[in-house]
Amino acid sequence: MTTAEESMLRANAIGTPLTRLDGTEKVTGTAPYAVEHPVDSPAHLHPLQAAIALGRATGIDTSAAEAEPGVLAVLTHANAPRLASTGNGELEILQSGEVGYRGQFLGGVIAETPEIARRAADLIRVHYERYEHDVELRADRDDLYKPEQVNPAFDTDTAQGDADGALASAAVTLDATYSTPMEHNNPMEPHATIACWTDGELTLHDSTQGVYWTQAAVAPLFELDQQQVRVISPHVGGGFGSKGIPHPNVVLAAMAARLVPGRPVKFPLTRQQMFSVVGYRTPTIQHVRLGADEQGRLSAITLDVVEQTAKVKEFAEQTAIPTRTMYAAPHRRTSHRLAALDTPVPTWMRAPGECPGMFGPEVAMDEMALACGLDPIEFRVRNEPETDPESGLPFSSRNLVACLREGARRFGWHDRDPRPGTRRHGEWLVGTGVAASTYPVFAMPGSQATIRATPDGRYAVRIGAVDIGTGTWTALTQIAADALEVSVGEVDLEIGSTTLPTASGAGGSSGINSWGSPIVAAARTLRARLDEHGGTVPAEGVEATEGMPDNPHTSQYAMHSFGAQFAEVWVNADTGEVSVPRLLGIFAAGRIINARTGRSQLLGGMTMGLSMALHEESVLDPRFGHVVNHDLAEYHIATNADVGSLEVDWLDEHDPYVNPMGSKGIGELGITGTAAAITNAAYHATGIRVRELPLHPDKFL
Ligand code: MOS
Q: How far is CA 14 from CA 301, 484, 636, in A?
């Protein structure tokens, strides 16, 4: 960095497009990911996975595996450490031979090389007793149940007024069912762990979104105190939610390491293994009903969601949540019902709840706008609520309309002929579409930051946060520099370990909010202490530690980010192929801490939304209970060829209520609404209304 750049950053570190502080390490391959940490004489684990969907392993013959040269140990339920019963059926593996889903871990081989471990695992013979399994989600199942709460602690159902009555008397109505498929998180770095036991304590180099969250889940299973489990994770190659809490792979690595005391055990999952053990986005079935008057004012909104969970552990996706906030209507109802299946356990996947939950309702808004004879932007503007429709709280800031208007201007929306199927370029049918985005402002409790000033003019900032590729290293350094009123070059940030002060994980787009707030608080305290020393730092240094300050505004305001997504879609009239030459997202998410990494977050979210729209679908074979397209050859993810121009911008939004930085969180906002905008554009292109993602070519033929 040049001196000129440094002095510019000193003036206002927050908001500047600082390049990633870990960028050089990342692109030169020196940033260590989980299994790349140098450890002495590592052993290697390959898992044994259930080949049936439901039943019991009645016999596991490990003799051939054990006889292989280079095999150190074979792990099965017969010799696995006993785990404490914590009620977590996903993590409590190898406590018996029972099989709850296909691919569940039944054991593993620990060997001198990964190749030996893999070959030996193939030599294990398992005899099963099979039970009849049940893996099919349908809305007409008679065993659907109502969970007590939905992720993480929202009301399962809500109701205001008389939605059925309002629908019966509405001038215009819509009654349609939408669905989103099972989808799998595919971060670039597979889930991976090095586990090592020393003197009864466990060290995990783990690819995780939260070092303290992993510690909190693993310690009680092995009946350890929290501090007896050390979790280290300085660099993570993506997570998207599936690394938010540990999955059975972390437990299997820790169990395996018990069998080879003193030796670290490396366990990186293969891409195919990830499709059965690290979670997925549950498929959803969304029944939407809307009622409006002749002027296009909504009188009723209902959303009834059916989705799956697993018998081994409940995960209830909060799919109806955004519908509770998006549009005004006096009569409202939302509900969630679950089918518990013999499948792996669903988990968080980028904007769990909001991402699938902004598909059905935002396509429904497009359909309803047409039914009311209104432009889809005008229809949304007409139904903009003054306060949060269900809580009645004022919004801390809400700039959805401004995003729609600015996006329309930038996209050239107003030249659009609203009639579907009227534009054509050769064999391509051309259309444009819009949808809204939203995501709540979450703050996790419990983080602490320590800042230490030393006489050499440096500031050491320590917090057990993690950087999953989002830019945490850079953004937290900027926040600290800003609050300390020093340059970013004077700040030494340490994150990514449970040896640092306690912190929440990277999830719910809450990282900057939850880690930045205590950093700002600690910086204020430190500056006050430095003032007491007359501005000079004594030889022993000066230190301050602060936790997450209380924010009285959280109970007074509804806090959400908003955005508008615009898509141009071409559908091939002969093949049904869908191509997206233009995507534009305009967002309002408070103050953007770093314009470069922030833009990257929003672009990444929209790219994942594009991928959801066009490709992503995990195909579960009902006969065998496994995902058949379980790798990147067959589970398609969007690439450059799927999109032409992908543009992101944001409004200058000032929100004094959310936190001391004025930032709202942007990791998940960008994925919400994207698939709906593309689907609405595909309808405009073709006149074919697709209500089931993804938009595979057959839907247009
Ligand atoms: Mo995000 S799906 O809350 O990690």
A: 40, 12, 37
Measured in degrees and rounded to the nearest 5, phi and psi for residue 570 equal -115, 130
**pLDDT tens digits along 150-169:** 999 999 999 999 999 999 99
- Give 363-384 pLDDT, tens digit per residue: 999 999 999 999 999 999 999 9
User: Where does residue 166 rank: exposed (0-12), middle (13-18), buried (19+ CB within 10 A)?
Assistant: buried
> What separation in Å is there between the alpha carbon of 18 and the centre of ligand 1?
25
* Ligand 1 pocket test target in 321, 355, 612, 668 with most atoms within 8 Å of CB: 668
Burial of residue 479 (number of CB atoms within 10 Å: 0-12, 13-18, 19+)? buried
Bridge-based pairing of strands 298-310 and 331-341 is parallel
Placement of tokens 């800042």 in the chain: 451
Q: Cα(83)–Cα(81) distance, rounded to whole angstroms?
A: 6
For the chain, give the number of residues. Answer: 701
Report DSSP state, residue 240: T
Q: Is the CB of 353 under 6 A from ligand 1?
A: no
Please spell the DSSP secondary structure of 566-598, one letter per residue.
EEEEEEETTT--EEEEEEEEEEE-B--SBHHHH
In this predicted model, what pLDDT tens digit does every residue of 509-534 receive, in sequence order?
Answer: 999 999 999 999 999 999 999 999 98
Q: How does residue 13 score in pLDDT terms, banded at 50, 70 and 90?
A: confident
How far is the centre of ligand 1, averaged over its atoms, from the C-alpha of 247 (Å)? 15
- Residue 512, helix vs strand vs coil: helix
C-alpha to C-alpha distance for 631 and 363, rounded to whole angstroms: 30
Task: State the Cα–Cα distance between residues 592 and 598, nearest whole angstrom.
Answer: 6
Distance CA 196, CA 237 (A): 22
Closest ligand 1 atom to 667 CA: 1
Tokens representing 592 are 């953007």
252 exposed, middle or buried (CB, 10 Å; 0-12, 13-18, 19+)?
buried
| Closest protein CA for atom 4 of ligand 1 | 241
Is residue 503 exposed (0-12), middle (13-18) or buried (19+ Cβ within 10 Å)?
A: buried
- As a whole number, the mean pLDDT across the chain is 96
Q: Which domains does the chain have, with CATH numbers?
A: 42-132+186-277 (3.30.365.10), 149-182+281-442+556-700 (3.30.365.10), 444-550 (3.30.365.10)
Ligand 1, pocket-test mutation among 348, 439, 441, 612, most atoms within 8 A of CB: 348
List, in order, residues 6 or more apart from 460 with CB less than 8 Å away. Answer: 450, 451, 452, 454, 492, 494
CB distance 103 to ligand 1 below 6 Å:
no
* C-alpha 241 – ligand 1 centre gap (Å): 4
Contact between 696 and 574 (Cβ < 8 Å): no
What is the residue whose two structure tokens read 């199927």?
421
Residue type, 654: H
280 C-beta closer than 6 A to ligand 1 = no
Nearest to residue 472, comparing CAs of 35, 31, 152?
A: 31
Q: Which residues are catalytic?
A: 668
Q: Is 663 in the pocket of ligand 1 (CB under 6 A)?
A: no
Measured from the CA of 239, which atom of ligand 1 is nearest? 4
CB neighbour class for 7 (10 Å; exposed up to 12, middle 13-18, buried from 19):
exposed
Please give the ipTM for the structure prediction.
Answer: 0.96
**In this predicted model, what pLDDT tens digit does every residue of 337-354 receive, in sequence order?**
999 999 999 999 999 999
Atom of ligand 1 nearest to the CA of 243: 4
Q: How far apart are CA 306 and CA 179, in angstroms?
A: 9
**Is the distance from CB of 344 to CB of 101 less than 8 angstroms?**
yes
- Whether residue 60 is predicted with pLDDT greater than 50 in this model: the reply is yes
pLDDT band at 11 (very low <50, low <70, confident <90, very high): very low
Q: Which two tokens stand for residue 604?
A: 């990444």
